[in-house]
Amino acid sequence: MMWFNKSSLISVEAQRKRSFLLGLLPALVVLAAITIAPAVYLFMTSLTPLDLTRQEETAGDYSRPWTNYVELGSDQRFHNSVWVQVKLSIFTVLLQLVVGLGVALLLNAPSRFLEAVRTVFLIPMVLPPIVVSIIWKVIYIPDVSPIHRLLEVFGFPIESLITNPKLALWAIAVADTWEWFPFTMLILLAALQMIPDEPLEAARIDGAGSWQLFQHIILPLIRPTIVVAALFRLIDSIKAFPLIYVLTNGGPGMVTEVTNYYAFIEAFNFSYWGYAGAISVLMVAGVFFFSWLINRMAGRSALQET
Amino acid sequence: MSMVNSVDIFSVRARTPVRRRRRQRIWLYIAAGALLLVVMFPFFWMLQMSFRSMDDIFGFSLIFKPTLENYGALRTGDFPKSFWNSVAASVTSTLLSLVIGVPAAYSLSRARFHMQNRIALWILATRMAPPIAFTIPFYLAYRQLNLQDTITGLVIIYLTFNLALVIWMMQTYFDAIPQTLEEAAWVDGCSVWGTFLRITLPLTAPGLAATAVLCFIYSWNDFFFALILTRTKAQTAPVAIVNFMQYEGWEWGKIAAGGTLVMLPVIIFSFLVRHYLVRGLIAGSLKE
Amino acid sequence: MSKKPKNQSKSKFTRRQVLKLGAGALAATAATPFGVPTLLGQAKPYAGTEINVSCWSGPYPKMLASYIPEFTEMTGIKVNYETPSFPIYNQRMDLELSTKGSGYDVANITFIYCARWIGAGWFTPLKPYFSDPNKTPSDWEPEDFLEGVVTPHRDTKGTLYGFPWIADAMISASARFDILKKAGFGMPDTFEEMETVLKAVHKKEGVAGFVNENHHGWTWIPYLYGFGGKVFRDPPNDLMPMMDSPEAIEAAEYYGRILREYGPSGVLSFMYDQANQFLKRGRANLITFNHAWLLQLGDPETSKVTKTVNYAMMPAGPAGRFPGVASHAWGIPLASKKKDAAWEFIKWSLSKEILKRLLIEKGYGSITRKSVINTPEFKEKNLVNGVDLAELYLKTIDVAASGYMVYRTIHVYPQIDKQVDKAIEIVTSKQMTAKEAMKQAQENSVRELKRAGVKL
Fold first, then answer.
1. Quick one: pLDDT at residue B187?
2. What is the ipTM of this complex?
3. Residues C164, C142: contact at Cβ < 8 Å?
4. C414 touches chain A (CB under 8 A)
5. Which architecture does CATH list for B72-282?
């Protein structure tokens, strides 16, 4: 295609830009169709009392648009679910950072063997989450769990964790950490390997011990990466679903019922689509606001440092 | 931070922060090996369950006669079909995302649009939304559009995460290729997209492969969307496994065998693209 | 009646179909007529049809599975049969029905959902099928089913949407009655007696005193009524829930206590199959649960407690005896595209012959047809360790006929059911007192009912 001799008025630059636009356009159109349109639809649904058992009367009933939101304001179960979500997110992010960092530090050496170990540790992260949930279901049912059995044999029998209201959320956090620690491990390993040798060698010659090396040299250098990893895990922690679905169903009671799960129950157990829509809208708004906040406080400075 | 993207922790050339002595090395290996066994124990447990006979499926003795009867039991019933549904949905979704996303990534990389940042933000926002925010409108819309329980329906909703992934990852790969090559071709009279196909794209082949594999993995692993949007015809393998969820031994044999089969493709593919995983995981989050 | 396939001029048979026809004819001569003489003597009109059948994993659906190949032989209909667990089945079926999807041709109408699903018009009226002599011969006798068990599957006008495959009658059982005897007790008849017995036998010989499935919305309601409480104030007109009445609180406290003090570790995560396994292995003793499951404790092939099991009526509370009775039925979703083939399946699977075979060959005791109940085999198969379960079964159904089961024919009961599940979980795990938990259940129930458009 020889554009430039067609018209001297249209510069080559502009023509090229038009080509690029053409390449970008399909993606933008598709993205708009699959994100903006559903977002609008979701919001509109949340303004109705849509219930599929009474579809004719409830679809398109905008007579009292804010009812769902008002009700959420006084819905204890909803407030509880937000609190559970906050707890779960904090537990899992912290655990995954700690475990990921620990493993990364341990495996950070050139060696074929360690490389193999690192590769095997990828597995939990790439397993289909439903398979992870099944694995942990067997681990958490006392009757059939090899871990419970082992503890029993050594004289430390423990009661079921997932039906203990104080421990159920921790049990889920542990399974979630098992699943995702490879993520933080990978990222932190990459950051660790970026650390230049010289300052560490110099400090060692000066007599610094391993812990001091870690505290004063390694940690500050990888701090930005830690923040990024934490942010990513935080955002993904909102999506926790298969573990709860398979292990506890939100129970015992509501102790493991996160907001995502509560919305799922409302929509898919009883067809309260309007109400579940309102919960989802609030979730999305909350997530956006929260990440904007974090980005402002920590992220931006971390970005600037890198 | 963009340098972290390109670090390959699976290359043995990785450097140590501290020189370790030989004796310490042995302890390091022992510790790593022990950690491996402890951490991967749950995984190996399920694996061995899939080879146990049905009436001893929950047995604790590690000495047993391995059998393939659980895998055999999967052959009748829905599981093979659901496995193929997974393949169809994942492959189609990957291809579609690549076809739409790669040109877009290239355009974003080369042209300086003023809405660049806003697009990046939009994509980031998409990634942050919880799946239920998508499922509700999609579910209701699919009722009208007759896309309930179809592979097409799944492929479309998988675009919500795959398209973003493709654009992000490929953009960083394209950014890494100097524009001088293309500019030379343009001066010679080649069109933008001709140059792209003949010069740029081949240079990013490994990155393209890695992106494709990651798309496949995310689609394959999906549970939530398939649970809600499929019923019988388009049911995927992860959902089929959940249908087996009972307490009795014979069902757990199928669950263990099914779980093993479902995880095999992703493990193999991840192994193949492990050098690109860091980039894939945090791609696009940090733009200069 | 000899059955030879007639020559069909219009159809082109593949060799496989011819072989199938032959085999089908042979099978048909071996069995007594299934009430499908219209099919015999003709080429299978449904050859090549495929139907999707789904039910939760109850005893009947699981036992039926092994007979399905015969059905396919006979009619040519291929059956894609699935039996997921109870909560998964209900959720997915509710979702499917709400989309008026045609994914399933035969589906179970779960007892607590029957009013919801039938009331929303999601199933097909069956009269055109069972009253049409071309589709159903008269000896299939639709009136042969126990009326009390059929009624929930009619709508308010009396149109019938499903035929029941089970009358789930609640009785009590002791898997290790020998332990009770040693402690000097018989089968408890009241709630008070039961707690006394449990205190005495819990953990004796390593056996937990009590166990039950975690679907408390089913298992706890008889205790609610036994203490004098109710689910709704005056159904079907006044649907105000009564979850926080003093009687409800007492019932919740009692039941939570016995689960907590006398149940095995993790009992809150036990579904029906796990509870059943526990009993069969003799790991737990007392239970108040459905006859269809408890009968299996007498099955020598799967149960270790056949010699020590004993049964009795569901214990009574201060306000009386209110054993739960439910019925699940086969129905045809409204949008199914293969209703005729679907009806063939229902006809076959609920025929007198199949029910009789299930009773005799598989030990399925919760029969819904009077003609099969009134056979000596019914009594015989329901005799375990000298206890006449047939009598218990029929007496329980009789008691329930007095009308307190109407709560589960209310279309919004599923919402209350889930609230009860949560409340009992909370009480058992001591997260709140019974009073607080039931108050919360009441508040949430009222909210849910309002959300469902019920005027309170």
1. 83
2. 0.85
3. no
4. yes
5. Orthogonal Bundle (1.10)
